[in-house]
Structures are given as C-alpha cells and as structure tokens.
Design goal:
Protein name: Large ribosomal subunit protein uL10
Number of domains: 2
GO molecular function: large ribosomal subunit rRNA binding
Function: Forms part of the ribosomal stalk, playing a central role in the interaction of the ribosome with GTP-bound translation factors.
Radius of gyration: 28 Å
GO cellular component, one term: ribonucleoprotein complex
Number of helices: 7
Shape: elongated
Family: Belongs to the universal ribosomal protein uL10 family.
Helix content: 55-70%
CATH superfamily of the largest domain: Ribosomal protein L10, N-terminal RNA-binding domain
Structural class: alpha+beta
Length: 179
Amino acid sequence: MDRAEKRELVSSLHQIFSEHANLVVVTRNRGLRVHEVNDLRGKMRENGAQYKVAKNRLARLALEGTTFEGIQPLFAGPTAISWSNDPVAAARVVSEFANKNNRLEIVGGALGSKELDAEGVDQLAKMPSLEEARAQVVGVIQAPAQRIATLFQEPGSRLARVLNAYADEQGGGSAEEAG
C-alpha cells in the first residue's frame, strides 16, 4: 500500500467515524481463517455494520478528531475494527461470532464518546436493536387502542348474553330464535 492509498484509507475511515458511525468495536484476530473473516463480514453487512482489518497506526490516525478518539490505545497487535450506525448491530454480530469462535477476541469499543471494555460491548450486544426498540414502542402504543376496542365491543356482547339468558328463563328459547 503506497502513501496515497494510506491517505485515502485514513480519510475514508475518518469520514465514517465522524459522520456515519454511532458504535465502534475493536477486536483482536487470533488466527481467523479467510473463510471465517468472510463469514463475519457477510454477517456484518446483513445487519448494517462493517468489519475491516486496518493497520493500527492508520486506524489511530483515522480516529483522531472524532468522538471515538479515546479508543486509540486499544489498537495493539493484530486488530480489526467494526462499526455501525445502529448503536447495537456491530456489537451484536461481533459478540455472537466471538462466542462461537475463540479466534476472535473483543478488545473494547465506544458508543459515541462512551468508551466500552469487552464486557461493555457484550452487554450492549444483549440490548434490542434500534428497529426492535421501535417495534416495542409501537406495541406499547397500540396495546391501549386494542383494549379500548375490546371495551367498546364488550357491552354489546354482554347485552346479548343477558337477553339470551332472559329468553331462556321465560321459556321462549334464545333471543336469536325469537328475533
């Protein structure tokens, strides 16, 4: 990689970290095979996240001046970086992958300016994604409306049961048969 390519990579990553990423996760590669890295990248893409192996020095340069600048010390040894706009996606994919494959170690990360250790990334991975949280909020909002609809239907069905019981008592059969 020549100097122009390095500058382009640093510039590209810096723009991503400045404008598009809400979460950055740093991992350590302990001998992942090519097909495992490709599998991880595919899972990342499916969940709206990215995974990139970059030289530590270049990654640290790209983080300068961003809200993620505090995680620069995490870049030591064979590392890779993951990021996502969704505040949970990258953490969830990395955490699930690391739990199944001991060749990937979570080093830490950052959610905005909040630095996370490996345990913090795992805890974040257990939270609902942005889409799941939105669906839960919609469900909470819709629940009272469903209860109100049921409440409005209930008096009519209650009245019908009372009329049927009264008709049965009178010996004239059900209200439906009489009507």
